[in-house]
């Protein structure tokens, strides 16, 4: 019984709602009204009841009712359903929110999503949906002057449905300010979602000047989204004006921009003026006044919003508007009507398109009267006189526009207007242009140059006659030419573009990072910075140490008597003589050895350099000493040394010339030596491993000593002829084997005496 009672009560309530809710009555149209009539009435009522345009306390509710009634009647299916049954989802919503049942005990029941269809209707997103082609062809070019908010959604996305009310509020708040909101169906446009770095749904992307910024927070706070848009508008879009910079700001019109002053009761610039400044940033430079004295000078009311526009005449504004709440449409209309200076400069192709549009399909000609000057102060008087004439010229501004151009910056455009075969000096001359299409122009030069005001009467008379004649439809201009687009004088240089790209890239990286990714990225960046800092610090210490050593060496050099006293070679070669014999051979410490080169006076120049080069890698070994011995001085010692190493006791007959190039490695403590000579069996190459083993087994001590001709008086004891420069070619390899311990050791019982000579 209880369920039936609830059902009956519910049906009665719905019937009551249906009887009271009438969208035709809300809009004031008949049931037979066409779609065009409904749309016309809706626009009129929306302007009348918009909360920004009326102070009526019921404006908010009335505006919502008008909008929902319009959305119902503009949809054919929903309109037919309402005409047949008188019940629609708007019925429940409107009566619940705005009827006397607002505090009804069944409020919680009707607040469920089952009855909140209109607020979360997915068709709302479908109506605003765009394609990737529309994004590339329409939105990106339009984003240079109009901000866009793009909402990404898909079907059967409950989170998207839940954010629909917030997106509606966002539209109601931002669309009147000049921001356009569109949607993208992610399932139908997956490539566009990937291009714009959309990873989750729902998602909002801000499009400004072709750059995208992804909003990563939840779409439940309209104010946060508005702040996100505000923070990504260009930096210093509006200059703060105080008493000390008002004159500099107003006199900066030489950048070819009109000056605009914004006055507000509060101290912060509202979003509506930021978006307006973004829309007209190429034509108007805006400043926000934060000074009471400037308000008094221009007699601006304290309780109203005021916008003043100035051209070259900074003493008084060329246009002004003051209202409690300036509508965006009205503000744009006033700025559009005064967005050019009294004498603008043709500084880009867009300025030329606005001042001198193409008129190939119009019977009435629009002429552009252009003074050719240079970017020099010498031509300021001529431009000033031409500006005064342009302000007082008796012509309709819709048919005749005055401007000037810099010949040194737009030389290609100006030179194309010089007729072939005619001597025309363009500087300080006036050319009259009529553009038929984008590249085809007709023109005529004034026969007299533009002078200053003292000599201007004849020139003005000539110019007025020429303009009056050319304005007639029957008259044609004398010349025609094909011209290229003007050079954009306000475009950023290559350095500015690189900096802008880097800033945009850094912002995209920052926006693309999740909260979980920020810490690892910061860790990597910190590690790289730490490594670079440590490397720089170490390099700094090395430079300081080198500088300290350099200063010490310079100081020591200055304190010594000569450079020879300060020379300490890294590798010292000692001469083996009787007074050094004990230190180099006989009394060597355990583990120490002396490498001795045997030479004579004739071979000194040829053998010392290769010996020095061969033993250079071992210079830091503290267990080695290096020496050389003249065979003439130590022949008897050398003969006794070889005699002691032989197993047989017989007399040796030594040829001193055959001993040259011998290297002895002497171990004084253990009483043995190793020998290198180019004719020594250890220095000869083995042809195979088998020959090496046979030859090693047959070598005896006496044979090892016979290699240098002990039994011969001739130096030619072998069939090979040896050159002194090649005697030490195999020494580096022998030294490697020496320190490996693979060379043959010749042991003796005692060290013979070295001769005293």
Automatic annotation (TrEMBL):
Domain J: 22-86
One Pfam family of this chain: Thioredoxin
A GO term from the CC aspect: endoplasmic reticulum membrane
CDD domains noted in UniProt: DnaJ
Keyword Plastid (UniProt): no
Keyword Chaperone found: no
Record-linked Gene3D superfamilies: DnaJ domain, Glutaredoxin
InterPro entries assigned: DnaJ_C16_autophagy_reg, DnaJ_domain, DnaJ_domain_CS, J_dom_sf, Thioredoxin-like_sf, Thioredoxin_domain
Domain Thioredoxin: 108-234
Entry membrane topology: Single-pass type IV membrane protein
GO biological process: autophagy
Localization annotation: Endoplasmic reticulum membrane
Keywords: Autophagy, Membrane, Signal, Transmembrane, Transmembrane helix
Signal sequence range: 1-18
Transmembrane segments: 518-542
SUPFAM superfamilies assigned: Chaperone J-domain, Thioredoxin-like
Function: Plays an important role in regulating the size of autophagosomes during the formation process.
Protein name, per record: DnaJ homolog subfamily C member 16
Highest classification ranks of the organism: Eukaryota, Metazoa, Ecdysozoa, Arthropoda, Hexapoda
């Amino acid at each position: 019984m209880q369920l039936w009672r609830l059902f009956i009560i519910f049906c009665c309530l719905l019937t009551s709602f249906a009887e009271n809710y009438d969208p035709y009555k809300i809009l004031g149209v008949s049931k037979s009204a066409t779609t065009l009539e409904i749309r016309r009435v809706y626009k009129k009522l929306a302007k009348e009841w918009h909360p920004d345009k009326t102070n009526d306390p019921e404006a908010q509710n009335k505006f919502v009712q008008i909008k929902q009634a319009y959305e119902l009647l503009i949809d054919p299916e929903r309109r037919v359903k309402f005409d047949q049954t008188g019940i629609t989802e708007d019925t429940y919503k409107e009566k619940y929110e705005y009827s006397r049942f607002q505090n009804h005990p069944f409020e919680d029941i009707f607040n469920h999503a089952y009855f909140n269809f209109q607020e979360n209707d997915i068709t709302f997103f479908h109506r605003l949906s765009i394609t990737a082609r529309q994004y590339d062809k329409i939105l990106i070019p339009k984003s240079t002057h109009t901000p866009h908010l793009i909402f990404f959604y898909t079907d059967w996305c409950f989170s998207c449905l839940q954010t629909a009310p917030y997106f509606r509020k966002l539209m109601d708040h931002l669309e009147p300010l000049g921001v356009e909101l569109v949607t993208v169906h992610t399932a139908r446009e997956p490539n566009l979602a990937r291009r714009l770095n959309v990873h989750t749904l729902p998602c909002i992307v801000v499009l400004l000047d072709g750059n995208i910024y992804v909003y990563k927070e939840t779409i439940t706070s309209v104010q946060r989204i508005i702040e996100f848009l505000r923070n990504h508008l260009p930096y210093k879009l509006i200059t703060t004006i105080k008493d000390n910079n008002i004159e500099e700001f107003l006199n900066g019109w030489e950048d070819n921009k009109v000056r605009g002053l914004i006055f507000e009761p509060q101290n912060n610039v509202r979003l509506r003026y930021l978006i307006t400044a973004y829309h007209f940033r190429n034509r108007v430079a805006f400043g926000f006044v934060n000074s009471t004295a400037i308000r008094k000078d221009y007699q601006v009311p304290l309780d109203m919003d005021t916008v003043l526009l100035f051209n070259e005449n900074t003493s008084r504004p060329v246009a002004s508007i003051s209202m409690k709440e300036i509508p965006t449409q009205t503000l744009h209309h006033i700025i559009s009507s005064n967005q050019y200076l009294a004498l603008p400069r043709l500084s880009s192709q867009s300025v030329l398109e606005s001042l001198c549009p193409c008129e190939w399909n119009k019977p009435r000609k629009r002429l552009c009267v252009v003074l050719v000057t240079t970017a020099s102060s010498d031509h300021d008087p001529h431009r000033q006189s031409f500006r005064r004439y342009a302000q007082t010229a008796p012509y309709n501004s819709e048919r005749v526009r005055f401007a000037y151009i810099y010949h040194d910056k737009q030389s290609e455009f100006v030179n194309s207007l010089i007729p072939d075969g005619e001597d025309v000096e363009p500087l300080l001359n006036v050319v009259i242009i009529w553009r038929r299409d984008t590249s085809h122009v007709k023109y005529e030069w004034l026969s007299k140059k533009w002078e200053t005001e003292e000599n201007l009467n004849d020139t003005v008379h000539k110019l007025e006659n020429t303009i009056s004649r050319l304005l007639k439809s029957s008259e044609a201009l004398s010349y025609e030419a094909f011209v290229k687009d003007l050079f954009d004088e306000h475009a950023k240089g290559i350095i500015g573009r690189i900096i802008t790209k880097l800033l945009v890239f850094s912002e995209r990286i920052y926006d693309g990072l999740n909260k979980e990714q920020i810490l690892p990225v910061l860790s990597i960046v910190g590690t790289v910075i730490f490594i670079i800092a440590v490397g720089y610090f170490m390099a700094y210490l090395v430079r300081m140490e080198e500088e300290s050593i350099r200063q010490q060496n310079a100081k020591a050099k200055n304190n010594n008597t000569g450079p020879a006293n300060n020379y300490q070679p890294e590798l010292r070669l000692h001469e083996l003589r009787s007074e050094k014999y004990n230190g180099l051979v006989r009394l060597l410490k355990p583990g120490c050895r002396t490498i001795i080169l045997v030479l004579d006076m004739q071979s000194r120049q040829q053998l010392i350099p290769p010996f020095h080069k061969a033993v250079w890698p071992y210079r830091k070994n503290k267990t080695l000493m290096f020496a050389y011995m003249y065979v003439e001085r130590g022949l008897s010692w050398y003969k006794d040394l070889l005699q002691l190493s032989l197993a047989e006791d017989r007399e040796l007959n030594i040829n001193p010339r055959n001993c040259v190039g011998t290297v002895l490695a002497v171990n004084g403590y253990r009483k043995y030596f190793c020998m290198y000579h180019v004719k020594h069996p250890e220095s000869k190459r083995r042809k195979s491993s088998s020959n090496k083993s046979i030859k090693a087994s047959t070598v005896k001590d006496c044979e090892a000593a016979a290699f240098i001709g002990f039994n011969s008086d001739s130096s030619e004891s072998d069939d090979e002829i040896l050159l002194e420069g090649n005697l030490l070619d195999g020494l580096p390899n022998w030294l490697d084997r020496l320190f490996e311990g693979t060379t043959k050791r010749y042991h003796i019982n005692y060290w013979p005496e070295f001769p005293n000579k």
